[in-house]
Structures are given as structure tokens and as C-alpha cells.
Design a protein that fits this description.
Layout: H1 4-19, H2 25-38, H3 46-57, H4 63-69, H5 71-89, H6 108-111, H7 118-125, H8 127-146, H9 149-160, H10 164-175, H11 182-193, H12 198-205, H13 220-245, H14 249-257, H15 262-287, H16 294-304, H17 306-309, H18 312-321, H19 326-353
Length: 363
């Protein structure tokens, strides 16, 4: 039988080899450290090597080893990074025309004279611009109040359906209009609620006066909200159904054992599980307050009139791009981007105050 000291020494050496990621280097490191200590610590390379060994022993890894380890993943992401740079970030350099009296035909970017912040001054002095901004925010708030809760309600309804076949059929029917273009959506609403639509004709046949919702300026914000609900509600349902699928079913069983009915289970189990997703989507939705559907509004702009249907995107297109005033349009676009960033930061701050993570976690 070996002495206890010998057994303890072999056990320590085995533990050192197990924690050493480079095999039997632990014994060599111990011997080299002993020789360095006997030399009085005059070796200048001992400190970097000891620091690297400390990181490796702690489970860390240097950036060169990470590049070598993940070289295949890096090569796979290079095409996506290149596309992102070419189509998203390099075009940002064109925002310089917001500070120029830009002439797209003769002078170009390099020859157009700089005018400083004159284009931004024109925006702030344009009363029509502020009217359009207020109209855009009114339409956004209408859609936020009437459209945003509908996908949540549909997801909760589908979650209560026990039959998988019925649930799949309803989800497919609700999701199908998402693939329709806005031209088709506006055409369907025109055939249904226009002056010569099916509803107006049915009312006239039964002795009532017909109506035309497609040209009613005061009803326009509700009309575009109804179109957005019919087209995109099914898309939002998918996100909330995915969040509901991650809820632990034991929570429902425990709540049922405690005597909670269907409504109490939904209020105390389902909705708390959806709160992080609702907060995240709400922050993103608030951040895109000025990004309403350009094509949807443009198709109906002439029917209702620009007074009720003009939004920021159509106003920039009409007064900036269509008339050739690209400097004014670029300045309005920069203002729109800064306003959206401020809205995201503000909404995310409110989410943090309510205890949710939002877009990014609070440090």
C-alpha cells in the first residue's frame, strides 16, 4: 500500500491535469514557475504567460483562438454583412444632400453648394409640415388603440380552442390576407364599402340611403385601421401564439386545482406570460410611429383629399421627390429618423419603469 502523502500528491497532479486545457502542461507550468521563482522573477515573459494561463484555467479564450475556432461561421456571415453595408449603411452617406442645395441633374453631390441647416429651417417654418406630422400621429394612435390589441385577442381565442384542426383552419384564414398587396386590399374595400359597393347597393334595394366610406374624410383614419387589421392581424397572431406555446402547462393545472376558472387562468397565467412580448412589440410599434404604410395611403390620397390622408411619407414624396427638391426631402427624412429614435428610447424607458426589458435590458 502507498503512503498517504504519495496518494495525496498523485491526486493533486490528476486534478491539475483535469483543469489544464492543454493536457499535461500543468506539471510543466509548475516546474517553469518554480524555476522562474528561483531565478528571482527576472523573466519578462512570465507575466503574460501566467495571465494567459490564468484566463485559460478560468475557462476564457483569447480573441485569436476565437477567430480560429469560429472561422467557418464568420465566413458564412460575410455575405450578409456585405449586403447590409451596401444597401443599408453606405447609402446613409447620401444624407449629405440635406445640407446642400442639391441639383441631381447638373451638379450632383460633389458639385452642389452647401447651405448648412437651411433645409431644416424650411421644415420648421413650414406650417403644412406640422399639420402633416400631427395627422400622422393621429392615424398612428388610432391604429395603436384599435389594431394592436386585436392580434392578442385572436391569439388568446385560438389558444382556448382544443381542436388542433379547427385552430389551424382559423389561423390560416386569418393569416391569408397578409400575402395580399395593398392594391388588392383597397380594391376589396372599395367593392364592399364604396358608393357602388355591395353594402350600399343592398341598403338602396331595401329602401335606405347608401353611403360611401371610401371618400369620407372624417372616417379615413378608421378606414385605414380596418384595412390594416384585415391584412396584418394574422401576422401578429403568430408571434403571440409562439409566446403562448412556451407557457408551462403545469401553471394552468395548478391554477385549476386552486379553483381558478377560465378567465382567472387567462388573467393570472396567460397575460403575465405575454407581458414581455407585448412590451417589446409595443416599444417597436411606438418607434415606427411615423412609418405608416406609404402604398396604402398613396392609393387613397386622391379619393379622400390630402387634408385628411396626408402623412409624412406621402408629404415628403410629393413636396420633395416629385418636385425635385431632394435636399428638403432628405432633411425631412433625417428629422423622421431622429424622431423615431427618440420615441424608441422614451418607450423603452417606460417599459423599464414598468419592470419589463423592452428592446434592451437596463444596466
Amino acid at each position: 500500500m502507498k503512503p498517504r502523502a504519495t496518494v495525496a500528491t498523485e491526486t493533486d497532479r490528476a486534478a491539475d491535469r483535469a483543469t489544464d486545457p492543454i493536457g499535461d502542461g500543468g506539471s510543466r507550468d509548475s516546474r517553469s514557475s518554480d524555476s522562474n521563482s528561483t531565478a528571482g522573477g527576472r523573466d519578462s515573459t512570465s507575466k503574460p504567460q501566467s495571465a494567459a494561463r490564468t484566463r485559460q484555467a478560468a475557462g476564457g479564450i483569447t480573441w485569436r483562438l476565437r477567430l480560429h475556432r469560429d472561422r467557418a461561421l464568420i465566413l458564412m456571415t460575410l455575405p450578409a454583412i456585405a449586403l447590409l453595408l451596401i444597401f443599408n449603411y453606405i447609402p446613409l452617406l447620401g444624407n449629405i444632400v440635406a445640407f446642400q442645395d442639391y441639383d441631381v441633374y447638373d451638379l450632383g453631390i460633389t458639385g452642389s453648394p452647401f447651405v448648412g441647416f437651411d433645409n431644416f429651417t424650411r421644415i420648421f417654418e413650414d406650417y403644412r409640415f406640422w399639420q402633416v406630422l400631427i395627422n400622422t400621429l393621429v392615424i398612428f394612435l388610432t391604429q395603436l388603440l384599435l389594431f394592436f390589441p386585436i392580434p392578442i385577442a385572436i391569439a388568446l381565442l385560438l389558444n382556448t380552442i382544443m381542436s388542433a384542426r379547427v385552430r389551424a383552419w382559423v389561423q390560416a384564414v386569418v393569416y391569408l390576407p397578409h400575402f395580399f398587396s395593398w392594391v388588392l386590399v383597397v380594391t376589396v374595400f372599395q367593392q364592399m364599402f364604396g358608393g357602388a359597393g355591395l353594402v350600399a347597393q343592398w341598403l338602396r334595394e331595401h329602401g335606405h340611403e347608401g353611403f360611401d366610406l371610401m371618400t369620407n374624410a372624417s372616417f379615413f383614419k378608421f378606414l385605414v385601421t380596418a384595412q390594416a387589421v384585415w391584412k396584418d392581424a394574422g401576422w401578429g397572431v403568430i408571434v403571440f401564439l409562439a409566446a403562448l406555446a412556451a407557457v408551462n402547462t403545469d401553471l394552468y393545472e395548478a391554477a385549476a386545482v386552486d379553483g381558478a376558472g377560465r378567465w382567472r387562468r387567462m388573467w393570472h397565467v396567460t397575460l403575465p406570460a405575454l407581458r414581455p412580448v407585448i412590451a417589446l412589440l409595443l416599444v417597436l410599434r411606438v418607434g415606427s410611429a411615423l412609418n405608416l404604410d406609404f402604398e396604402q395611403i398613396l392609393l387613397q390620397r386622391d379619393q379622400v383629399g390630402p387634408g385628411a390622408s396626408e402623412i409624412l411619407d406621402t408629404y415628403i414624396w410629393w413636396t420633395g421627390i416629385k418636385t425635385g427638391d431632394f435636399g428638403y426631402a432628405a432633411a425631412a427624412g433625417i428629422f423622421k429618423g431622429l424622431f423615431s429614435v427618440a420615441m424608441v428610447l422614451g418607450a423603452n424607458k417606460v417599459a423599464h419603469m414598468l419592470g419589463e426589458q423592452g428592446v434592451y435590458s437596463k444596466k
